[in-house]
Amino acid sequence: MTAEQAVSELFSLCRQQAGASYIGEDISQLEHMVQAAELAQADGADDELVLAAFCHDVGHFCTPLTAANSMAGLGRQGHERVGAHWLRELGFSERLAGLVARHVQAKRYLCWRDAAYLSGLSLASRQTLDWQGGPMTGEEAALFEADPLFADSLRLRRWDEAAKVPGRPLADLAPWQALAVRVRLSAAV
Fold this sequence. Notes:
The protein is an all-alpha fold. The chain is 62% helix and 0% strand. Helix 3 (47-55) packs across helix 5 (94-113), helix 4 (79-89) runs antiparallel to helix 5 (94-113) and helix 5 packs across helix 9. InterPro entries: HD/PDEase_dom, HD_domain, OP_Dioxygenase. This is HD domain-containing protein.
């Protein structure tokens, strides 16, 4: 699959999320994705990390949601692993897929580490935390802190939480798609 084909498949699926509710929030799934990427870019993240912010929740919708994998109407259980696997299948880098795979771990870590972070979660995010294993234990946190993607995973998670602003105009997707092609092409090198 070429970079253009992989990105076309990704963005075709993402465009379908323009009208899809972002689980328990007052914005669409696509609005959330774009807002997360905009926050990453504004924070000076590299292209791969920006695209990871855009794609972090792709696991909610890249494969069908069923009664067996639903978090009681709050999205797909294990969406971080499903999304990471799907992105790898499209030929994206291990780093990008790894960041997607770790964004739930980052949430669990921050909830363990920072009481203010935990209390600042949206209602939907607090509800899904239970499905995701709750705050980490000290042992889990120590292992996560040793992960080479630890710092970038925390950055991505903070953008994820901040990317829930209702009524914000949706940016044109063409620049994000061009960025995705560049990132996918660099993964093939």
